[in-house]
Amino acid sequence: MLGLVLCGGKSIRMGTDKALLIHQDKLWAQLTKEKLISIGLNVKFSVNADQQKKYVAYFNGEKLIVDHAMLDIQGPLLGILSTHLENPTADLFLLACDLLLMEPRVLDKVMKAYTAVHSFEAYVFQKDGEREPLCGIYSAAGLQKVLHMLQTGTLTRHSMKFVLSQLKVFEIKVEHNDYHCFDNFNSHAEINGL
C-alpha cells in the first residue's frame, strides 16, 4: 500500500498553495506525510505540473507524482488516477493536506478495517450521513474500475463522492469526539487561532 498526500488543488480561497503553508513549524504537506508514515506507509505526494518545481525544493523528486496530461479530468480524481497509472498494483491510502487536525489513531481505524475485511474497493469514513472521500483507502482494483469507466466514457461525473457511489465501500462511522479531525482549512480566516 502507498500513502498519498493530496497537494494538487488550486487553493483558490487560500490564495496560496495550502500544502506549503506552515503549521507547528512544518509544511502542511510534511505534517500529512508524517501522519501516514506513523501508520507504516511509504508516502508520495500528488502535485500538479505547476507545483512540481516548487516541491522539489522540499521533497525528493521521486516522491512526487505529477498529474498526467493524458487524463482529461480535474480535482482530486486527477491526482489519484495519475498515481494509479504509475503504481497500478498498489492500494492507495489518501489523505488531503488540508485535514490539519487528523490524528494517526483515526487513520489507524481505516487500516484495521482494511486488514480485517479485504472484499471492498474503498474504505472511508462516514460523518453525518456523508462519506469523507479524501481520507481513506482505495484498492488498486477499484481504481482500475474507475479508470476503465473514465476511458469508456461511463464515468459521468468526476467528483470523489460520485466515484465512491460506483465502488463497493466499507464505511467507518466517525465518532463524535473525532469530528474535528475532518475539519478542512480553505482560507486564512479558518486557520487563524490554530
The tally of strands reads 9
Largest beta sheet: strand ordering: 5-4-1-6-8-7-9
Distance between the termini: 32 Å
Tally of distinct domains: 1
Q: Give the CATH superfamily.
A: Spore Coat Polysaccharide Biosynthesis Protein SpsA, Chain A
| Structural classification | alpha/beta
CATH topology, by name, is Spore Coat Polysaccharide Biosynthesis Protein SpsA, Chain A
Query: Which radius of gyration do the C-alpha atoms yield?
Result: 16 Å
Quote the average pLDDT: 90
Backbone shape? globular
Oligomerization state of this entry?
single chain
Q: How many separate helices? A: 7
Care to describe what's here?
- With 194 residues, the protein is an alpha/beta fold.
- It has a single domain, classed as Spore Coat Polysaccharide Biosynthesis Protein SpsA, Chain A.
- The chain contains seven helices and nine strands; from the N terminus they run E-E-E-H-E-H-E-H-E-H-E-E-H-H-E-H.
- The strands form two sheets. The protein has a seven-stranded mixed β-sheet, sandwiched between helices.
Protein topology:
Blueprint (H helix, E strand, L loop, with lengths): L1 E5 L15 E2 L2 E2 H11 L3 E6 L4 H5 L7 E3 L9 H11 L5 E5 L7 H13 L5 E6 L2 E9 L1 H12 L8 H6 L3 E5 L14 H4 L3
Give the gist of this structure:
The chain is an alpha/beta fold.
Using brief descriptors, characterize the structure shown.
Spore Coat Polysaccharide Biosynthesis Protein SpsA, Chain A; alpha/beta; two-stranded antiparallel sheet; 194 residues; 7 helices; globular; 9 strands
